[in-house]
Amino acid sequence: xxxxxxxxxxxxxxxxxxxxxxxxxxxxxxxxxxxxxxxxxxxxxxxxxxxxxxxxxxxxxxxxxxxxxxxxxxxxxxxxxxxxxxxxxxxxxxxxxxxxxxxxxxxxxxxxxxxxxxxxxxxxxxxxxxxxxxxxxxxxxxxxxxxxxxxxxxxxxxxxxxxxxxxxxxxxxxxxxxxxxxxxxxxxxxxxxxxxxxxxxxxxxxxxxxxxxxxxxxxxxxxxxxxxxxxxxxxxxxxxxxxxxxxxxxxxxxxxxxxxxxxxxxxxxxxxxxxxxxxxxxxxxxxxxxxxxxxxxxxxxxxxxxxxxxxxxxxxxxxxxxxxxxxxxxxxxxxxxxxxxxxxxxxxxxxxxxxxxxxxxxxxxxxxxxxxxxxxxx
Amino acid sequence: xxxxxxxxxxxxxxxxxxxxxxxxxxxxxxxxxxxxxxxxxxxxxxxxxxxxxxxxxxxxxxxxxxxxxxxxxxxxxxxxxxxxxxxxxxxxxxxxxxxxxxxxxxxxxxxxxxxxxxxxxxxxxxxxxxxxxxxxxxxxxxxxxxxxxxxxxxxxxxxxxxxxxxxxxxxxxxxxxxxxxxxxxxxxxxxxxxxxxxxxxxxxxxxxxxxxxxxxxxxxxxxxxxxxxxxxxxxxxxxxxxxxxxxxxxxxxxxxxxxxxxxxxxxxxxxxxxxxxxxxxxxxxxxxxxxxxxxxxxxxxxxxxxxxxxxxxxxxxxxxxxxxxxxxxxxxxxxxxxxxxxxxxxxxxxxxxxxxxxxxxxxxxxxxxxxxxxxxxxxxxxxxxxxxxxxxxxxxxxxxxxxxxxxxxxxxxxxxxxxxxxxxxxxxxxxxxxxxxxxxxxxxxxxxxxxxxxxxxxxxxxxxxxxxxxxxxxxxxxxxxxx
Lengths: 378, 483
Prior knowledge:
By secondary structure, chain A is α+β, with helices and mostly antiparallel strands. Chain A contains ten helices and 13 strands. The longest helix of chain A is centred in the middle third of the chain and has 40 residues, at 228-267. In chain B, strand 9 (312-313) and strand 10 form a beta hairpin. Chain B is globular.
């Protein structure tokens, strides 16, 4: 039986090889052309079992835990944060769905989930703004029209990792104002509608970020995942799982950015010496390295306490902010070259900026953390 | 999101944006009036012409970095932005650093990439302008002014950076050990230039480039010189156009010189004056770069205010929420503070720097009283470039310009550049946070401004080099120990 340390090592080796073979050859081009959801890489990830890493045996999963998923996506992120997040968002969402299905002891829901997973289609999320603990703000309304159907009206939150051929987790309110969490399946997607047409975006371009056009969409009543307080709890749990994954991706991304900056600094000559010999640059690189180590620590701490929402949100806040600073500094170290596409660090800077907005922005995460802290204070 | 110009903060007056102007309006009404007129022109062009094109240009340049919106620049010609720094005696706007800065701040609030086209053009112009090389005033600069009058834009660039020498070519100490590719050799009737320049803003669209190379690569400090090269000159070509993260509307190109012949008259300001020339030019341009950064931040600020006034969360507008209000207040504070720093730099330069020489009687006689047709006469032309003229200019400079003022200008201009650019990146980042994930989408322009802002920390000398410049000039007694 593997020790935790050995297991993590094995996951990292598997991820590194996967990234080298399947992601590295295409990541820069996909970023440049914003080609849409990376189906091929996603399917290869399914074949490698990444999608069910955290799921229990009865769902065909590996039964691993959050530290392993964080190691997986963190290692993938060293090559491309966007591809890492495609895998991570899917795995974290699958975990959250299994948690509510098994929490209700509803065997029908459990069977439906098993069927969903067997389609090997990706999960995307349209995460609304949290208003407070276990509550969210949404203008999306699901109207009951008397039959076993729901008709959606109003704008949805921005969706990430959503491909029209896949599933989308949504949050809405009923006519009576009750909180709802819903699952939009590919069969619901109206092919003629302008359903989340891709538009250019800042970063993480291999992972689609779109505004779904759901006005008028009709869903079957079985699309309801949870209602009322349960929907609020599901929102918070999903937020936390996605926050952990985001923080792990941020940690991997900034490791790569720091390494690129250091490698450049050791070779580039200015002012009569290599720039790493300028003490001011050493300060910058040292601060970057410190931020990387600190973030790895906070991510590992949060991952080992996966049921602790405060740890998850705090890790997301600190790691993504640090990643943004480290990647921006990496561009700065490379100077003019850093700003150009060829060297890859400007992509890292853009990706890191979007990580600070996922699954909700750091500014909103701060507010939620205080709400959690206050609840803990009693 | 509706037209952001409907946001009230985009319409505030110069006196409100810069309180010193209210005081100057009483002491120097014409000066302030001129600045307000230029601001109004820039606001009009920015709002009517630039902003509607900003996202489309960004998209097209993403697909093809060499794309350039000539039609948009042509629409600027009635406003005279390209020729605003050409002396009036040569047919231009006769403006200096302060007006340039106010114009680029307004244009940046619309699109920093487009604004940088004008900023980089001014950098190319300033080499000849600040060398007080009247020969070029009446030829290349006059052609630029004529281009604006005819609606046929003529664009300039300044070619300083090399593949292995970025910071190294912008600092005298670093230049000593720089690994240069460029060199100019004296030949009959002129010079042959060889070498490569990189990341040259406007490089692929410029009619004229001011090129900085030494006459002897082994002694760059002693022999650095400035040359004017024209598009189409034999041996001069444009290489690759870079794929930049932002500021895409202004192309950054590689310029290649292979035995490029430059006639002797296209030397700017005399042989071996390049180090002083570059220092003067950068001292003049870094204040307006602070304005570019300030305008970029302001663009993000205006757009996020507009968004926050419309977007509701939990039944309340974002702008009604305290955390948003205080973030917006911080942004307003930072933008305002950066503006004052760049105005310090620009006004210090305009009133205490080389432009002071242009206001001296000999310069005014030459530029304002002697007609251009007489100045371009062969004999007068030779006289204006003679050894006597050079000595007279040098003597005037020694008499009129105070070395402490020069040192302060260097300090203020680098401070403007550093404070503005660091602030722009912070403010653009905060704007993303206020909006949330939707800000990552192209449509709101906020992600574009975030990408644009980063370049202001890098060009015109990285912020690290500029901090080095601040140190040297703030602590002159420690200058020889500055590393």
